[in-house]
Write the structure tokens for this entry.
Amino acid sequence: MRGYELVVFVHVLAAMVWVGGILFLSLVVVPASRRYPADVRARLFADVGHRFRVVGWTALAILAVTGAVQMAARGATLANVMDGSFFQTPWGRILGAKLLAVSLMMLLTAMHDFVAGPAVERAARAGGDPERLRRRAGRLARVTAILALIVVFLAVQLVR
């Protein structure tokens, strides 16, 4: 396996971990948790959220590095990325859309992991009603999942 192929392989593995984790949480963990009492669900989501935060952000960091390496292999330089000329081809425009979706996805993930999620935990520990905050965190997670699927779709467009 050549170096570039190894970078692509690691990029795909990290994407599988990230997107697969999001889908597993939304399609398996969330529905299964609904049959448990609210306090058990809160502990479950806190524990799972803390663990996936480490796994997910590690995967995102790997994706950022391997993505940058792939861009450089395709001719991206700081100059042509900053002046926009790298994004003037059809392939470059798709990549630009993917990078925009990735940036938004990472911003929403940060809001979920470092603002909304901890707010739910604080409200639950304080004995308050964290339901409104939990719904907000859930909306952020759903939008992030949709963006992750859009990123996968755009990635497929790049390799066709």
